[in-house]
Amino acid sequence: MNNIPMHVSLIMDGNGRWAKERGMDRFYGHIEGVESVRACVEAAALAGVKYLSVYAFSEENWNRPQEEVASLMGLMVKAMAAEMDRLDSNGVRFMVIGNRDRLDAELNSVIDSCMERTASNSGLTLIVFLSYSGKWDILQAAKKMVSEALASGDSAESILSMPLEGFDSYLSTAGIPDPDLIIRTSGESRLSNYLLWQGAYSELLFVDTLWPDFRKDEFNSALEEYAKRDRRYGKVK
Ligand code: FPP
After folding, report:
1. Cβ < 6 Å from ligand 1: which residues?
2. Is the whole-model pTM more than 0.90?
3. d(CA 178, CA 200)
4. Model confidence over 128-179: pLDDT tens digits?
5. How many whole angstroms from 46 Cα to the centroid of ligand 1?
6. pLDDT tens per residue, range 15-48
7. Which residues pair with 128 in a beta bridge?
8. Helix axes 66-89, 26-47, angle to 10 degrees
9. Residue 68: is it exposed, middle or buried by C-beta count within 10 angstroms (0-12/13-18/19+)?
10. Closest alpha carbon to 98 in 118, 115, 81, 86
C-alpha cells in the first residue's frame, strides 16, 4: 500500500452502545474494545505505521459514574499487564500520555513498568492517551514554557515575544510526530478535546462502526481512505 501515514490516532467510541445493542452491561463493550486495540496494533505494525495512538480516557471521562470509572481503570491495569509480553516480544514501544496525577498508584506502577520495559524497542510506538485532554495539554505546555523562562531570568518582553516554533517541545507529546490521520468510530463527528494542537492538520475520518467492531479490515479500509486524501497544509499545490 502506498502513502502509509506515520501516525494514526483512534478515538475509540461506541463501546457502551455496542454492549447495549446486545442487552449487555456497558463494561462488556469496553472488554471487547481492548480486542479492537489489539487488532489495530497488529494491522498498524503490518502496514508499516510507526505510531499508533488511542484515546482511552479523557479528562471529562472522570465525570462518568464512579463504578464505570473504577471498572475502566481496572480493565486498563489488566489489559496492560496481560499484553505486555506480547507487545515487548513484537518490538512495540509502549507509552502513556496524560494527566497521570489523577491515576491511582497501582495503574501508575503498571504503566511505569510497561514503559520502562519497552523503552528501547524500535518497532511500532503505541501511545495510550489516558486522563488526557487537548486543553489540559496546551495549558500545561504554556505553564512549563513560562516557568522555564522565569527560572532562567528571561524578561517579560522576551517571554511575550516567544515564537510559535518550539512550543511543541513543551506539549506532552514532545518528540512524537503529529497524527496524520485521526479516526473516530461510532458515527460521532467531533474531536472531543483530543489532540487540539497536534491535530491542526490531521486528516479526519469519521466512521459509523462501533469501536468493538473496528478490527483489521476496518483499519485497513481507513488506510485506503487516507491514501486518497490530498494534504495541502494550507498551501496551493
Ligand atoms: C468510549 O465508548 C470508550 C471509552 C471511554 C473507553 C475505551 C477504553 C478501552 C477500550 C480500554 C483500552 C485499554 C487499553 C489498555 C488501551 P463509550 O463508553 O463512550 O461508548 P458509548 O458512546 O456507546 O456510550
Report:
1. 12-17, 30, 33-34, 37, 54, 56-57, 61, 72, 75-76, 79-80, 128, 186
2. yes
3. 9
4. 999 999 999 999 999 999 999 999 999 999 999 999 999 999 999 999 999 9
5. 24
6. 999 999 999 999 999 999 999 999 999 999 999 9
7. 54, 96
8. 30
9. middle
10. 115
